[in-house]
From TrEMBL:
<feature type="binding site" description="covalent">
    <location>
        <position position="144"/>
    </location>
    <ligand>
        <name>heme c 2</name>
    </ligand>
</feature>
<dbReference type="GO" id="GO:0042597">
    <property type="term" value="C:periplasmic space"/>
</dbReference>
<dbReference type="GO" id="GO:0020037">
    <property type="term" value="F:heme binding"/>
</dbReference>
<feature type="binding site" description="axial binding residue">
    <location>
        <position position="98"/>
    </location>
    <ligand>
        <name>heme c 1</name>
    </ligand>
</feature>
<feature type="domain" description="Cytochrome c">
    <location>
        <begin position="36"/>
        <end position="121"/>
    </location>
</feature>
<dbReference type="GO" id="GO:0005506">
    <property type="term" value="F:iron ion binding"/>
</dbReference>
<dbReference type="InterPro" id="IPR050597">
    <property type="entry name" value="Cytochrome_c_Oxidase_Subunit"/>
</dbReference>
<dbReference type="Pfam" id="PF00034">
    <property type="entry name" value="Cytochrom_C"/>
</dbReference>
<keyword id="KW-0479">Metal-binding</keyword>
<keyword id="KW-0408">Iron</keyword>
<keyword id="KW-0249">Electron transport</keyword>
<dbReference type="InterPro" id="IPR036909">
    <property type="entry name" value="Cyt_c-like_dom_sf"/>
</dbReference>
<keyword id="KW-0574">Periplasm</keyword>
<dbReference type="InterPro" id="IPR009056">
    <property type="entry name" value="Cyt_c-like_dom"/>
</dbReference>
<feature type="binding site" description="covalent">
    <location>
        <position position="55"/>
    </location>
    <ligand>
        <name>heme c 1</name>
    </ligand>
</feature>
<keyword id="KW-0349">Heme</keyword>
<dbReference type="InterPro" id="IPR024167">
    <property type="entry name" value="Cytochrome_c4-like"/>
</dbReference>
Amino acid sequence: MIAALSLVAPWSMAGSNSKQPITQAALQARLQEAQGNPELGQRLYSLGKKVAAVCANCHGPQKSREFLEVPYLEGQNPAYLVEQIRQFSQGERKNAFMEGILKAMNRDEMVGMVLFYEKEKLPVRQPADQELYARGKAYYGRICINCHAADGHGNERLPRIAGQHYGYVDMTLKRYRDGSTVRSDPNMAFVTKAMTDQDIAAVATYLETMP
């Protein structure tokens, strides 16, 4: 963790506003400003690319699949991702490692990072098991689509789940279903309560192949 934090230091200048709590409203406003101003957006994107070089040690396309706890960030909905970053940085979403890294970042670094990841592409994957894929597609069309929409690309409140790797989806759905304190959400707990391990495997198989 110390090594990772030392990598953050070079771009976190003395004038960083990271010591002041960064509000959700401030982050969303800055994100919208960057999205509406190409020059600012490009500047923050370049800053975010530097930040993401550290993130890639765990969140890279190959690395993420090695660790069930680590999701893909490529293509993630920026409004959702920037809010998750804020929650981690302020200890509202619990992960000591993530909190330690993100609390050193300022507002523009956070916004720049999500702008960078928004443009990154997820690897295209073919279903390893056609039967599980078909079952997962049918399940998604009956249940998951009601909140996550047909494309699974997320919004400010919901993450992009399309293309997320199998291991992370499988682990996360089981945590919701089994009442883990690591991930807690009443809606997801209700939806996953009746899911079998096979249902979860099917949905995870389908999501991994969604564009």
